[in-house]
Amino acid sequence: MADNTSIVKIEKEAKELETEMVKLSGEYSGFMIVTPEDYTKSGEILQKIKGKYALLDDREKEITRPMEQAKKSVIALFKRPKQILEGLEVKIKDAILTFQEKQEAERRKKEEELKKIQEAEAKKLEAKANKTKNEDKKAELLAAAESTRAIAPQVAPNIPKVEGISMAENWAFEIVNKDLIPREYMIPDEVTLGKVARATRGSLHIPGIRIYSYKGVKASKK
């Protein structure tokens, strides 16, 4: 790992290199190609630029490679203990979800049992209503039966509140039939299209796609 002294030296070197490159850029800031000689000179300039860039890149890697290796070594040291904790976290979370699902199932079961009791009570009231000849009493019993059915039983789950633990509702998706996916949710495979364009060189027609060529300048370092 680089110490403070090394960092200061690197910063100084980088500033010197930056000054040099700014000076180089200034030398060619107004460069234009008008004559064949200018065109020839442009090739020499490009090679010079590529050479300078390669030197900078090599120096950068010379400095950063030990840092990256040190970082990889540190990450490797902590990888296993972190994996153990991650695995334990998954295990505990799975146990929490399993417990909650069980408690929720028991809660629903108790509510269903209460609903059955309510329904039985409502039917008893209806039976009494059908037997009575008093219209006011009959209406009263039928209203009571309806009221009994209308009260939805609610059973709280037996899940204690624990500080630091909260539940989050997550949403995801899975593709069940890609042919039915609306167009606005489809993304063109640009990697494959690029490979096809380079391989066919414009000889293949793909509906909705224009395959074209463009010029570029390549230069070797000097």
Q: What would you say this structure looks like, in words?
A:
- With 222 residues, the protein is an all-alpha fold.
- It has a domain at 30-153 and 173-200.
- Helices cover 66% and strands 0% of the residues.
- The chain contains 4 helices and no strands.
- Helix 2 (36-131) packs antiparallel against helix 3 (135-150).
Low-confidence stretches: none
What portion of the residues fall into strands of 2 or more residues? Answer: under 5%
Radius of gyration: 39 Å
Helix tally? 4
Choose one word for the global shape.
elongated
- Mean of pLDDT: 91
What is the string of helix and strand elements?
Answer: HHHH
Class inferred from helices and paired strands: mainly alpha
Distance between the termini: 33 Å
- How many strand units? 0
Helix content: 55-70%
Write a brief structural summary:
This protein has 222 residues and is mainly α. The chain has helices at residues 4-27, 36-131, 135-150, 190-200.
